[in-house]
C-alpha cells in the first residue's frame, strides 16, 4: 500500500477520501490549515495517519509538506489535491483580489503539489494523482465566473499532466462533483439565501434541484470515485463527473 497525501483533509470531501484511503490500507498524511480539524480526522482513521498543517497558497508550502511526509514515511505514491475554495458573485462585481484568490487556491496550489509529487512517483514507476475539480470545470455557470475559470484551469492541468506522464506508471485524473453536502456548500447556501431572500432550507433545496437526482451529493460518493482512480491504472486524463447526472459527458 502507498503513502498518500490528502489536502483539504479536515472536513467534507477530504475527510471522506482520507477515510476511504485508510480503510484500503494506505498510510494517510492529512494536510490543511486547521490543525484541530486534522487531528479530529486522524483520530477517525483505521490506519496510520499523520497531520501536516499548512496553507498551500504559500509558495514554499508544497515543498514543506512533501518534505515532512517523506522524512517520516518515504516517497509519496498518492496525491489527492482536494483543498479548494468557492466564490459566488456577479462577474462585474468580482474584484481582482477575489479572482486571484480563486486561482491561488484552486489552480496554483494543486499545480505546486503535483509538480512536487511527480518526480518521486516517476522514480517509483507508480503514482496516482487525483484533483477534486467541479462540474463547472466543464461548463460555465452564472455567478461563479472566477471559480469556474479556476476549475477549468485545473482540469486542463490534469489532462496535460496525464498525457505527459502516461508511459511512466503515473496516472492523473480529476473528479468533478456537483453540489456536495459539505461545509463549503453551507457557505454557498447562506450566500444564495441572502441574495434571493430565502431561508437556508429553501436555498439548499434549490441547489438540490439543480441535479437530476434531486439531492446533494454525499462526500463518500466523491471519495468512491477517487478510490476508483487510485485502483485502476487504465484510468488517466479523465474528469469523472459525480454530479447526479447534471453534466452528461
Describe the structure.
The chain is α/β, with parallel strands linked by helices and 249 residues long. The protein folds into 2 domains: 3-178 and 219-241, 3-Layer(aba) Sandwich (Rossmann fold); 179-216, no CATH class. The protein has 8 helices and 7 strands, in the order E-H-E-H-E-H-E-H-E-H-E-H-H-H-E. The chain has helices at residues 12-23, 35-44, 61-73, 96-124, 145-165, 183-196, 200-209, 219-231, and strands at 3-7, 27-32, 49-53, 78-81, 127-132, 170-177, 239-242. A 7-stranded parallel sheet has the order 3-2-1-4-5-6-7, sandwiched between helices. Helix 1 (12-23) crosses helix 8, helix 4 (96-124) runs parallel beside helix 5 (145-165) and helix 6 packs across helix 7.
Secondary-structure map with pairings?
Layout: E1 3-7, H1 12-23, E2 27-32, H2 35-44, E3 49-53, H3 61-73, E4 78-81, H4 96-124, E5 127-132, H5 145-165, E6 170-177, H6 183-196, H7 200-209, H8 219-231, E7 239-242
Parallel strand pairs: 1-2, 1-4, 2-3, 4-5, 5-6, 6-7
| Number of alpha- plus pi-helical segments | 8
Q: Percent helix among the residues? A: 40-55%
CATH class call of the largest domain: Alpha Beta
Name the CATH superfamily assignment of the largest domain.
Answer: NAD(P)-binding Rossmann-like Domain
Structural class: alpha/beta
Instruction: Quickly give the CATH architecture of the largest domain.
Output: 3-Layer(aba) Sandwich
How many distinct folded domains?
Answer: 2
Amino acid at each position: 500500500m502507498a503513502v498518500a497525501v490528502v489536502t483539504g483533509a479536515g472536513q467534507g470531501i477530504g475527510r471522506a477520501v482520507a477515510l476511504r484511503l485508510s480503510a484500503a490500507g494506505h498510510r494517510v498524511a492529512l494536510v490543511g490549515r486547521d490543525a484541530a480539524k486534522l487531528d479530529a480526522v486522524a483520530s477517525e482513521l483505521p490506519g496510520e495517519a499523520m497531520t501536516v498543517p499548512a496553507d498551500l497558497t504559500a509558495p514554499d508550502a508544497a515543498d514543506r509538506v512533501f518534505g515532512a511526509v517523506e522524512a517520516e514515511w518515504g516517497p509519496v505514491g498518492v496525491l489527492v489535491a482536494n483543498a479548494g475554495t468557492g466564490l459566488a458573485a456577479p462577474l462585474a462585481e468580482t474584484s481582482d483580489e477575489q479572482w486571484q484568490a480563486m486561482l491561488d487556491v484552486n489552480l496554483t496550489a494543486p499545480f505546486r503539489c503535483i509538480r512536487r509529487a511527480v518526480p518521486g512517483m516517476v522514480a517509483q514507476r507508480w503514482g496516482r494523482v487525483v484533483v477534486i475539480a467541479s462540474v463547472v470545470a466543464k461548463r460555465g455557470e452564472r455567478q461563479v465566473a472566477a471559480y469556474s475559470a479556476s476549475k477549468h484551469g485545473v482540469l486542463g492541468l490534469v489532462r496535460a499532466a496525464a498525457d505527459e506522464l502516461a508511459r511512466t506508471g503515473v496516472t492523473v485524473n480529476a473528479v468533478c462533483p456537483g453540489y456536495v453536502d459539505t461545509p463549503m456548500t453551507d457557505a454557498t447556501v447562506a450566500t444564495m439565501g441572502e441574495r434571493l431572500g430565502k431561508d437556508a432550507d429553501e436555498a439548499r433545496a434549490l441547489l438540490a434541484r439543480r441535479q437530476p437526482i434531486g439531492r446533494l451529493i454525499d462526500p463518500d460518493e466523491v471519495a468512491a470515485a477517487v478510490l476508483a482512480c487510485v485502483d485502476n491504472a487504465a484510468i488517466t486524463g479523465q474528469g469523472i463527473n459525480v454530479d447526479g447526472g447534471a453534466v452528461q459527458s
